[in-house]
Amino acid sequence: MAYEHILVETRGKVGIVTLNRPKALNALCAQLIEELGQALDGLEADETIGCIVLTGSEKAFAAGADIKEMAGKSFISAYLEDFITNGWERITTCRKPVIAAVAGYALGGGCEVAMMCDFILAADNARFGQPEINLGVIPGAGGTQRLTRAVGKAKAMEMCLTGRQMDAAEAERAGLVSRVVPLADLMDEAIKTAERIAEQSRPIALICKESVNAAFETTLAMGIMTERRLFHACFATDDQKEGMAAFVEKRQPNFKNS
Ligand code: CAA
Predict the structure, then answer these.
(1) With 90 as the cut, is the pLDDT of residue 68 above it?
(2) Catalysed reaction(s) (predicted)?
């Protein structure tokens, strides 16, 4: 499918979506968000794909929601169209693992979209921030909630109240990103990581993602119970038999996604 603001490609079992609106530093306009949703629908439906990488340019993952598009909104128009929730959260409903490969600016909605992914791999030039306060609004795509869960109240509160940006090293120390790599290596590392995930048993990878995500939605006791039941469910798969047999026989497993 031809898109205007994104590029979509597949490399083996990995789907790559590149935000591609360079003149606006990948500002997330409504059309881009709609295209991103369509691309994720396509990659979810593609049985050959086991993991998705979402990335931007070297200068900007995304500099936020499109300020020019949003400037004229009223409360009633924002409310009636359910602005932000509508469409954006498609990333969070993706069942396949999604890695955000972030270089350059990930600000406002850009930081929020990165945090909607399953984890963030950052280039050493990445900068994260929630500068909405400077525009007379607050984050509207989960920034006050996901950033707080990722880095704790002190840093999240300071960043949301002041608009201060974190560089990649601080983001790694704070637990916002899983790893920082040199800018030149970002896509190779992201694709290598995605390939590793895509090589695993598909159902087990999905179950694993579901179980980790449960940690953010429930109590510890309920989360442990959810994990245990999902762990038990793994034993109903052929891939559990294959994975353990391969270990015993000292060979690589050949998962069949069943
Ligand atoms: N929306 C619309 N256009 C944007 C944009 C945005 N969020 N960010 C950058 N652009 C546009 C600029 O207007 C500019 O376009 P023109 O050439 O037509 O003027 C172009 O991208 C390049 O930007 P700059 O000239 O500003 O580039 P820079 O290198 O000097 O600065 C920057 C880079 C610091 C990221 C700066 O562009 C900036 O501060 N951008 C806005 C960041 C921001 O406030 N994001 C939050 C948006 S609100 C939000 O996201 C709400 C939410 O929670 C969902």
Answers:
(1) yes
(2) a (3S)-3-hydroxyacyl-CoA = a (2E)-enoyl-CoA + H2O; a 4-saturated-(3S)-3-hydroxyacyl-CoA = a (3E)-enoyl-CoA + H2O
Could you confirm whether 65 is annotated as catalytic?
yes
Ligand 1 atom closest to Cα of residue 130: 46
Find the catalytic residue in 65, 103, 150, 198: 65
Ligand 1 atom 22: the closest Cα is on which residue? 24
- Beta strands in 59-178, from DSSP E residues, in sequence order: 60-62, 98-102, 105-107, 119-123, 127-129, 166-167
- How far is the CA of 243 from the CAs of 175, 235, 236, in angstroms? 31, 11, 13
pLDDT digits (tens, 9 = 90+) for 166-215: 999 999 999 999 999 999 999 999 999 999 999 999 999 999 999 999 99
DSSP state of 46: -
Read off the pLDDT of each residue in 232-238 and give the average, rounded to a whole number.
Answer: 98
Number of domains in the chain: 2
Looking at the fold, whether 20 and 134 belong to one and the same domain comes out as yes
Q: Which residues constitute the domain of residue 215?
A: 201-249
Q: Distance, CA 64 to ligand 1 centroid (Å)?
A: 7
Q: What is the pLDDT of residue 115?
A: 98
- The ipTM estimated for the assembled molecules is 0.98
Q: Give catalytic status of residue 109 as yes or no.
A: yes
**CATH at residue 79:** 3.90.226.10
| pLDDT score for 214 | 96
How many CB atoms within 10 Å of residue 175? Answer: 12
Tokens 């270990």 belong to residue: 247
